[in-house]
Amino acid sequence: MTKPRILYVQHELYTWPLAKMWSHNFHLGLENGFTANGLDFTTLVTPWFPAAKELLEGKQFDQVWINDIAHAFRDGGCGGYQMREQDLEWLAGLAPIRVGFVSETLQYSAEEYASNTGLYQLQEALGITAKYATHILAVDENDIEFIQSLVPARVMWMVPCMPETFIGRTDAAPSIPKGLFIGMPYGARADWLQMPELQELLAKHESQDNHSIIPERFDELHAAIRSRISGDVSRLASAYTSYLWELRRLRELSFSMYLDGLKEGAAVVHLPSYCKVYNSRVYEGIAAGRPVITSRGGGRPRLDTLFEQGKDLLIYPADDPLALATHIRSVVEDPEYGRAIALRAREKLLLHHTAESRVRQILGWIETGQEPCYTTAADAGKTAPAKKEALQMPGIQLSPPGREPALRGGDPLSKAKKRLALPKPRNGKLRILLVSPPYARFLGMGNCRFPLSFGALGTMLSANGHDVAIYDADFDRALIGKSEPYEYTFSSQEKIRAALQDRSHYVWKEIDRTIRGFNPDVVGITTMTSKYPMALRIAEMAKSINRDVTVVIGGHHSSIFGPKLVQDTNIDFAVIGEGEMTFLELINRFCDPRPDFTRVNGLTYTDGDRTVTNSPRELLSSLDVLPIADRDLMINEGYVSENNIMASRGCPFNCSYCGAQVIWKRKVRRRSVPLITREIEYLLRRGSSRAIQFWDDTFTGDRRFIGELMPALRKFDGLTFSCITRLDVIDRETLTQLKGAGCNLILFGIESGSDEILKRIDKKMTREMIRQKTALVHAAGIPWLGFFIMGYPGETREDILATLAFMREVNPSYAEINIFNPLPGTRIWNELEAQGLVGSDLDFSRYSQSSTDNYFTNGHMTKQEFKDLALYMAREFDAHNRRHNGK
Known about the structure:
The strands form five sheets. The chain has an eight-stranded mixed sheet with strand order 12-19-18-17-16-15-13-14, with helices on both faces. A six-stranded parallel sheet has the order 2-1-3-4-5-6, with helices on both faces. It has a six-stranded parallel sheet with strand order 20-23-24-25-26-27. The longest helix has 27 residues. By secondary structure, the chain is α/β, with parallel strands linked by helices. It is built from 33 helices and 27 strands.
């Protein structure tokens, strides 16, 4: 089957009271089906239709799917954007195939029309819209002939569906021994709720999402659309991307909370409604894992084949409340009976009614004309298959279906197969502890830098309903503001090794208490190479506390050595590359009834005695899909942090020693200025400091971005900020903009005072260029810090001393000296590995940017001579900094 490029037009309402009733499973939940089938799709939500032409400019489509073509064209758009005929004409010109959804029954009795005159509008709207569709999907089989009488389009009966990720089960006893009614109490429904024979048996379901921040955030999100559409056209795409990410997040979180609430009752009850089929409410109840009691319209033979009365569903006549009461009593008094019904219905849901299979069936019908079979006589004794395709976040590219994950080399783990620990969700949710390992604490130095690698990740996990905590094991309130001279750090690598060997060290005791106190199902550990030994110790501690805890490791070191790391018995999964979406998807797979990790891109793990490495994860196309970090997730006692943030990821340059290219692949992606300023507003509200630290690799790499961001920063009274960048991407104009916006420190990589070493590093700079650029910085009156390196492979004593002399010449406000430390995955690491000087079996506890064991001078001096020279350089840099800063 040829995979088409699809434009998916989804109708959305403006306010939460109305929007709440739109079922996510038959709404944006269809995106799960697109993703699982490897489709190239673009979602256009109707409130943004006035900007549709700008948003879709340059895109080409084979099919347009419109959900739906009745409600969106009713008067007032049912509370959303009311599409017009000219909108349909434009959509018809985008693709030769247009698929229209009709998600409501179209034909009613005279009494029903009298009770709700708005029902007439469904047919009226369809009389206009249907002629623009080539294919129509109708949920009511009895409407097919009526639709065919309007237009020559092909019409198919389509049964609602549910994304696999939301299909759960519950073995817990109900907390409410009643049937829970879901839906709006309109018409006769309100009377049923007051009937004496039902009052003791039926309760109105009140979803907890209605009492959360979701309604307010949803309304705010849609109230802001008009100003976003009428604003700067160049920012439309990023504004829409941000909106769509937030909408998906709110919808998914709301739906999860809603399904959790349905589990509280002994059964889910669907009272008689205008819709005469098993609508989405029935499938929601099944997905929640409770027996469903429902009525249905008569004279629909195909509908009757979907579920069996008394086996999959409990069905009552729409005019018989006593029959409903009997069904509710049957499951309240006999929970095992109700549980058996729920499990059989769940099996059918997985067999025939997932969003993943439904999208595939629709595509097959469009291509071949063959209508799908939603149930078969062969179902007897048949069980639902394990999920073959794990779901990804909508819009993230999947590896092609059918492609198997790589089995790298058949890495033997041991003669005994390693046991992969899988967490057991509690009500579909997990307790997740994200740990940043210690390092500076072991040297008696302070660290107040917020762990940005966990910020967006923790926030997304929390938004998905999980219980999340971030723990920075390198934070120590007693050490806030404490630093040490370079002479001390160059002499203290043994303190790191000693702390690793001392299991009674107070830091390890604190980590132990934290893990025990939080009692996580999953421990996620981020690790730079210098912290890798500490990460291993934390993994070991977590497993010793609870052998069943799942340990996931990520970060730079994991991205290079992931397949080897998972051979450790204390590490279950390793994330390779940009980690947020991989980790989030992994957690979602844990919550599936039958977890399948084979399609989680960017993941490696063990399967029996082999190591499985899945396809690589593509970098996020837009950083605006990542939320502002919720720093209240930190659980350190007395925690405070710097206001450190990132406005971008990646660096386009290719310095041979730099690890930025390992994950970011030299691709620069920037957050939108409105999102950056929102995060700054959030940080300023949290504390008294008005100092911001930008930790981008090359902050001033894009002049247009700086030209947009600096005016935005000037609006914050008293704001100051620091940033990291390169000297070859600054000029007088840029420096003037930075200073005017409050920049009070710029950090530059100088690296060496030798042109030969700068060339080997591939710095793309010379001493003369550095002189000229640093003079501009001095003239601008902005303090600056210079990073310098000593010990680069092949560097001589004379080269190192030239660096010292050059540092004094360019005279930075603060000078930082580091010992060359080869990072895995970099070009220089690969060169040294080819020479047999480094490798994955290196004792990483001996090496850091302050370790004199980093000895790669190619015989130009002895190891002791190098150590002595390193300490001399440290003392001279310390003296320079004392002269400039008085300490």
